[in-house]
Amino acid sequence: AYRPTLDPLEERLVLTAIPRPDHVVVVVEENRGYNQIIGSPAAPYINSLAQQGASFTQAFGETHPSQPNYLYFFSGDNQGITNNTIPTQPLSTPNLGASLIQAGLSFGGYAQGLPAIGSTVNQAGAYSRLWAPWVNWQGGAANAIPPESNMPFTSFPTDFSQLPTVSFVVADGDHNMHNGVDPAAIQTADTWLHDNLDAYVQWAQTHNSLLIITWDEDDFTPLNQIPTIFVGPMVRAGQYSETINHLNILRTIEDMYGLPYVGASATADPIADIWATSPPSVDLSWSGAVGPVDALAYQLDQQLGLFSDGNYDDNWGGRNERWIQGNGGQWYFLTPDGGFYGWDGSGTASGPLLALLDPSYWADPSQLYNAAPPASMAVGTDFNVSRTYNVAGGPIGPNFTIAYYRSSDSTFGNADDVLLGTEAITTAADKALGSHEGMSPALRITVPGTYYIFARIDDGNTVTESDETNNIATPTILVVNQAS
Q: Could you tell me if residue 422 is inside a domain?
């Protein structure tokens, strides 16, 4: 079978939905800045979570000292409290816990060292009410948090399916980095987090649940930059540089469950770019020279306007490469194995692999810019298209397909486009994260002519993404003759 090859294509299909986890556990640590934790050998477990999940490089507390930050996080407002003086009367303003309960969901606060369920004591050993903001609404005239939602950490369930919808977890001062000196204080808190929450982290990966770790503030520096990490199966791992604070996290949790916005969360932006469900994305690229080399070389020459004025050099980047220029001023280079690359503009020979040619093209690059028209094929001949697609996120829908078309011109979407065949991507293995190489089904053209072969990907979700109508591969050129 004749197998023309399509040029490289990358396309992302974008949605902006925020997922709805079955459970969210929020851990708040004390008084450390970003650079004190991220990359620190004293916090190996926390840093492993930062690698596994979304780590924010520009997260900040709202203020100093500790307590107003906890209040902003839980209610979108400092409630008029600007110091660490604990309120003497219950608050009755809107708050996250009350919003969850009023929506028919559930909330729980778990504090290490709390003497008993429902206790409102200010201090007990290394426990401090400063770190348990939900207690301030217990017994309030409105928006009250019930006593049974204020629990010692010993009540944290081992059957994680029994967790409330959203839980806050705070360790005591000996285990949340408040007490002691570094690096021991960080090491102790890191170990406590591993020993007490890692089982939940592992369970969450297969149970649509999320862990959020953040800090209250960075202990009185003007910058007030803090670590913040999200870990869960719906999170796209990586470092994220948008500026966030506790209000953005609060707004995100509210959007997860369709809750009303409390306090200043109403004007905060939700965190929308870290989710594997938003965007659900499939990157589709076409690679591998499986057809006649002259057809591929001709295609490259026609699309890139390749020429040479003798200005190609050997071994500029240490890869024994040879250089060719396109008529748009872009440079390309060949390597001895036949690799044809687009230069990315850096100081060394680097850039994306665009095609794999016969090694003879490296020996004589003039073959590229003097390439002959592609070989023709007889009408009715079966051919295939090689393709590589990369699943970068999910979920991938049930109707994930790649469709192949012929067209009489180089513009897709006109009346002359004819569907040649559709490849259904159906198995879980073929929808899994990562790169997938393969071939189209057998395609056939029954009318003689010179055609452009296009391919279009649909990630299979029921919602039509904004970019979905444009994810068309740069076409291959194919000449179809009458059968002899």
A: yes
* Bridge partner residues of 322 (DSSP): 334
* Tokens standing for residue 75: 């209610």
Domain residue limits at 323? 293-369
Q: 379, 444 in Cβ contact below 8 A?
A: no
| Cα(155)–Cα(341) distance, integer angstroms | 59
The C-alpha atoms of residue 150 and residue 120 are separated, in whole angstroms, by 9
Strands 123-124 and 306-307, how do they pair? unpaired
Which stretch of 34-43, 131-140, 147-156, 300-309 has the lowest confidence by average pLDDT?
300-309
State the pLDDT confidence band at 344, using cuts at 50, 70 and 90: confident
Across the beta sheet with 228-231, the strand order is 150-152, 107-111, 166-170, 23-29, 209-215, 228-231, 54-56, 238-240
14 lies in a domain?
no
Out of 318, 338, 369, pick the residue that ends a domain: 369
Q: What is the DSSP letter of 316?
A: S
Span between the terminal Cα atoms of the chain, in Å = 17
DSSP letter at 153?
G
Same domain (yes/no): 428, 467: yes
For the entire predicted model, the pTM comes to 0.58
Residue with tokens 């990630």: 459
- The residues, any chain, with a CB within 8 Å of residue 68's CB and separated by 6 or more, are 62, 78, 81, 82, 83
Residue 274 covered by a domain? no
- Calculate the CA dihedral of residues 144, 146, 150, 154 and round it to 10 degrees: -160
Within 8 A by CB and 6+ apart from 32, the residues are 177, 186, 215, 218, 219, 226, 227
Joined together, the tokens standing for residue 14 give 């974008």
Same domain assignment for residues 332 and 216: no
Return d(Cα 219, Cα 205) in angstroms, integer.
Answer: 33
CATH of the domain at 117: 3.40.720.10
- Among 358, 303, 290, smallest CA distance to 332 is for 303
pLDDT digits (tens, 9 = 90+) for 219-236: 889 999 999 999 999 998
Q: What CATH number corresponds to the domain at position 439?
A: 2.60.40.10
Total of domains in the chain: 3
Query: Are residue 104 and residue 213 in the same domain, yes or no?
Result: yes
The residue out of 326, 341, 369 marking a domain boundary is 369
